[in-house]
Design goal:
This protein folds into 2 domains: 4-33 and 64-239, Reverse transcriptase/Diguanylate cyclase domain (Alpha-Beta Plaits, 2-Layer Sandwich); 247-278, no CATH class. Helices cover 40% and strands 15% of the residues. The protein contains 13 helices and 9 strands. It has helices spanning 4-8, 12-16, 20-28, 67-79, 99-104, 120-123, 126-135, 140-148, 163-170, 172-184, 208-217, 249-260, 267-276; strands at residues 37-40, 59-62, 111-118, 188-192, 195-200, 221-230, 234-235, 238-240, 245-246. The strands form 3 sheets. Strands 4-5-3-6 form a 4-stranded antiparallel β-sheet. The chain has a 3-stranded antiparallel β-sheet with strand order 7-8-9. It has a two-stranded antiparallel sheet with strand order 1-2. A hairpin with a 4-residue loop joins strand 8 and strand 9. Helix 7 (126-135) packs antiparallel against helix 8 (140-148). The mean pLDDT is 90.
Amino acid sequence: MNSSESRNNLHFPSIIGESKNDLDNIIRNIDSHYNEWIEEKIDKKTGQFKTYLDGTIKKRVIRPSKKRLKGIQSKIKDRILSKIELPDNVHGGVKKKSNITNAKQHQGNKYQFATDLKDFYPSIKSKIIHDTFVKLGYNKQFAFYMTKLTTWKGELPQGTPTSTHLSNIIFLETDYKLIKICNENNITYTRYIDDLTFSSQKDIQEFIPVFLNIIKDSGVKISHRKTEYKGNQNITGINIFLNKIDAPEKIILKAEEENIAEKKIKPYNSYLSNIRKTNKRKKN
């Protein structure tokens, strides 16, 4: 990670390889550089639509960037965001890590506590992005372009190349607070975007209010429907057991259907293989 002093001297347009005039023109016409649609949320465990207590289906707004801005955001991700160091507990949006590596960390731990951040991306406002990069030592021009080219309608949009990386960076301060407590008490903590999981060989119930208070202090809301404390949970879509991890039954059935249909491309089989190969003991 660059030092604070060197960050303060960085010229954003030069790093991205775009002229200041072109970037300013995109910002002036930012609405034309995004698409927008609404998706109904589906529960990963049941495959059914998620609903509120009154039966209304929950929805999320998807806002992917279009080709020109998407290309610039990809350069922002590769040339700036990916170079900001993240702790080992972060698995979402990190090379060679996934929901599988996230879940694997908790295998064998008897006590597991999981919670989910509610409307995580929309809760990250433009001002938070700007202030975070100033706090990290970048100059105000840099923070201005970073904010204007990665947020839309005042918040982090879902569906762009930069949003996951930015959410990781915004949550860093909270991550480190949680890591400190967990390291001091022999607790495993991982985060996969907005899914937070804590586990241990010992009962960690007394730490749950502490975890929740630290998370709430960061300004995000917790999805209490997804907050559970038990053993052998489904963590980020993976079933966790004492001596192995595995896919949920619906994925196994989909893989079997692919085999029966003799499909040439078998995404469910590939995914299932990636999960199960983590259970094989490495030869010395």
